[in-house]
Amino acid sequence: MAVLGVQLVITMIMASTLQKLGPYFSPARWLLCSTGLMYYLHPSDAELKKLAGIPQNPGGKGKGRGGGGRNKHKDNDKPVDNTFTVPKDLDLQLDCTAVGMLDVMGLRFFNEYQWLVNFSLCSAVVYIITEMYYSLFGKQDEVNLSMLWALVVVGFALKNLWQLTRMYFTGTENAGERSMCILCGVTYWLISMGVLLVDENTLELGLNTSYQAFNQSAAEFLGNQTLHSSGPVSLITFKVSVSLWCAVIGAFLTFPGLRLAKMHLDGLKYCEGRNTVKLLMNISFISPFLLTIMWLKPISKDYCTRTVFPGMVAPLMSVTDYESLRLWIVVMTVVLRLCMMPQYLQAYLNMSQRKIDELKKQTGRIKNTELQRTIASVFYYLCVVTMQYVAPLILGLYFAFMAKTLGGYKWIGWVGGEVIIDECSIDDEPPPGECGLINPHAQLLPDEALSLDEAREQFALKLSTIRQIFNEEVLRGMFGFATWWTCFMWFCSSALGFLYHEYFAAA
After folding, report:
1. Looking at the domain assignment, is residue 190 inside a domain?
2. CA dihedral 217, 222, 224, 229 (to 10 degrees)
3. What is the extent of the structural domain holding 191?
4. How do residues 181-222 score in pLDDT, each as one tens digit?
């Protein structure tokens, strides 16, 4: 078994590319600085005083006459207070400018956002090259390093979502956001427990099959180690653990969904006369719902793979074709949302002008620093909003990649035909390395020093054992469910945000 082969070459090339080209070309910076985004500048103190009719203070004059030198020095040591108030209905027109590279480099979460997008793109290139290599030469008996890249991307996306969610649990001013995260997490936990009780013939999650395959393979492995067990995890423990993971993902995606819904509603207001852009935005927004029902067998899979329509001699597609179509729809949804990303971000940046327009409808006065902070904070949180938009897309995309590769799916259903799994008879003795689990201690030489070839064989033997425990059937259920739940959370959080901003916030 070749532990490392072409995969190592591809990984080294992409790691070198990421290191050498990163400082000069960054797709993350390009998305922010080269897609035509415009942000609003806050007015200076001089502009506010001029509009409000406040006389300019020349600085240092008007302090009084006859003060001694000692008192004058004391006055100079005091900090100058430039705070003043202006009317809220001030006739203020904000200037806007293009988002530049120097503007975004100091923003909060910019480094995390840049690293996530750049690393995800390199991982996608590694994955595509690996898939092309396997399609041309067949699967090799080697480690698929593209899955390690994908696993690292998923880890980075979850880490960034955790950091974004943790902001709402720090400080005393975020009590409402903190309560919202906890409430949604508990709600999604209850929903997930209800989902896990749905029959597999209705909702094709594959978790029950995955659990049975894992328990069986793990029991065989423990039996080879003279540890007799029916399985390491009970069904109730397994489903409770899965439901807790679902609650965490739901809490992470709560505010990204609320933010997306707000940007969608605001973006539609700026698309008057551009029907194509408006249509694409609506398709992008509703696509998670279409993805969710792709796993409902009675209204999607059975309709396409079993129903024979009048005038046809066979269903619309085979089961393999349908599973391939489901993966392609996930990819197309992510690509469409990335293409619509400038529209959504511009709708967010326009919030500065909307806040000024709402302020003009009020009476009273406001401090100049508070007014400037209100306008500047919109651009200051641009990378936070961008991370909330991008991280869930990357998470769902790479779950789909891992489900495809580790679960044995195909990008083109008719290529290679159906997957045939060799099975051993119960009465036959399984040969080592084919059916059944290998005893990893069968060839160990504890009292002798292992040569390089023997160490390599032992490592390959251990790796084969792990691959037999976490076999294709186990991984298909795990990552297939992770992909569906992420898409379901896209839909739930964005739908919740749409209802909140459209009805409750307006009321």
Report:
1. yes
2. -100
3. 171-417+476-504
4. 899 999 999 999 999 888 888 888 888 888 887 777 777 766
